[in-house]
Amino acid sequence: MRYRLGVDVGGTFTDVLLIDEDSGESYRAKTPSTPSDQSVGVLNGIDKVCAAAGTSIDEISQVLHGTTVATNAILEGKGATVGLVTTQGFRQVLQIARSFVPGGLAGWIIWPKPEPLAALENTVEAVERIGADGTIVTPLDEDDLRGKLRTLGDSGIEALAVALINSYVRSDHEDRIAAIAAEELPGIPVSVSSRVLPELREYERTITTVANAYVQPQVARYLENMGGRLNKRLYVLRSDGGLASAPAAAGNPVSMLLSGPAGGVSGAVWAAAQAGHPDLLTFDMGGTSTDVALVQAGVPRIGRETKVGDLTVRSASVDVRTVGAGGGSVAHVPELTKALRVGPQSAGADPGPAAYGKGGTDPTVTDANVVLGYLPSELAGGEISLDTDAARAAVGAIADAMGLGSVEAAAAGIVDIVNENMFGALRLVSVQQGYDPRDFALVAFGGAGPLHANALGKLTGAWPVIIPPSPGVLCAYGDATTGLRDEAARTYIRRFSELTDDEVRGLCGELAGQAVAALEAEGVDRADLALTYQADLRYHGQGFEITVAFDLDGFSLAGLGALFDAEHERLFSFLLEKNERELVSLRAAATGPRPHVAPVALVEGGPDPSGAVRTTTTIHVEGSSVEATVYDRAKLQAGNVVPGPAIVTEMDSTTLVLPGHAATVHPSGSLLIRPSEEAS
């Protein structure tokens, strides 16, 4: 067996990438997603890509999967019925939550508070208490607990979460409750907070554990089903960009809520490195949404919170921001304002945009691009034929509602608005985090990303705009080229004056040992592992922390404090020099090696791209019609310069080069779009 398979399931398409481990040669396939059962779309894609490679599924050694099963369970409210065990006196921990309401002042009046994932009637109190110093204040009343667990079983719970006060310091009572639950509630999966999130703050720890329990049965069934059908070693991408084995992912599914977007960031980092750009903004535009992230020095920013819909959990994830802007985003004109709006509603995969010819009538971003002449007559290698008349009819409804003189004007308005929506997301990860987007390259991918990339480059000033090879399946590429990862954390609240350098090194060594052991159990050689460390720090008296990455070689508390001060000043533009620094939590992560994938090396062809010309077509740009040259990307060679206006087509995506810009073909296969004077 000599192939690795990367699979990414999106809202509209399922992307599959097959990599020959010997030669590095890759094969790709793109099939419509099947929301009712994601495994159907995955298996269809696998059959298709194996046929393209002239091989069979038996030759695949590993399947590396980015999935939205956990995400969709949260967004659609279709998770398990969860029972919750808390410490006596804390039964309403989820209802009290945090006193934060999104939006302005009116939010207090009109904001509908989301229902907790574990209902109050399914929450019971354990008679027990552990102190903040780890001492047992009140022993666990096991007889009382057994009766309450049986009551939960009778109420029909499908999963159980256990989150006791101060269990991050000492887990004895949680461990015992899990053991009793296995006796009283056989077959019911149990999520324990001291394993899911052994960190400070009872609400964050409880909601994260409950979210884990909420998606656990559905994720476990899906992974078991996939593993059974494939009969392969199945690995799942975590939200932080590392891989976990299927059993580990099934036990801790809250760590994979942003599995899909993380794969795209991993793939973008690899592609940008080949083109010599370690600092980049990622721009992943699919059929349903757009995900953006910031990468500095080849390392994605990792946040400590994961947000899905109205839910925020404490789990490591690539700092990805998502907006409801994709190729399937629906344009509409509210009767009250008569102002054009685009998204967040999406036509999805079924029926999809009107141009797909599957019964959809709503005008979408894809329909607008068809009207403007930016898209070819077929998508996904002929999988989908585009109906231009249906697209014009759909967008025509927008033109009529707004009183515009032409369908093209309405289409241009749709594209402009969706571009501004995505520009706002890119500002969230750059300007609002203290970074100037002009200091970064912009890597665009996803099925729709390259079509809008040049326009986003103009809005952000981020050059070059990089279009990687196979941009439509880059998320699957990231899945297939990522190493295993595991981390261990501990809350350890001490002022710096109460700590020593050796004490911190010792704690980091213990945490590193836990993370390393988990990967060694997967067969990874210890010598191949890379270790990274993080600390959650604050000034004494503050109610929040800042996460700082540090190196254990040459470690000192003074150096750690300097890193914290620099990050605090970057974020807030001031320091609290009279307040002592304070450690809150430490974290160690072990990452396995990335598999070898042979990089693309195109044949040198000089600046003339005429050998790749397919035809010419009329497109509409900035209110006028212009002739654009259409190129076949597979025939472009290193050094070719493609002047705009131009359209570059390939199986899984389409790239638009605007007038006044040019795309240079890098030897690695990426297209580097810049303003014409810079490209020359």
Automatic annotation (TrEMBL):
Residues 4-184 form the Hydantoinase/oxoprolinase N-terminal domain. One of its GO terms (molecular function) is 5-oxoprolinase (ATP-hydrolyzing) activity. It comes from the Bacteria. Residues 205-485 form the Hydantoinase A/oxoprolinase domain. InterPro entries: ACX-like_C (IPR049517), ATPase_NBD (IPR043129), Hydant_A_N (IPR008040), Hydantoinase_A (IPR002821), Oxoprolinase-like (IPR045079). GO terms for cellular component: cytosol. SUPFAM superfamilies: Actin-like ATPase domain. One of its GO terms (biological process) is glutathione metabolic process. Residues 509-664 form the Acetophenone carboxylase-like C-terminal domain. This is Hydantoinase/oxoprolinase family protein. It comes from Cryptosporangium phraense.
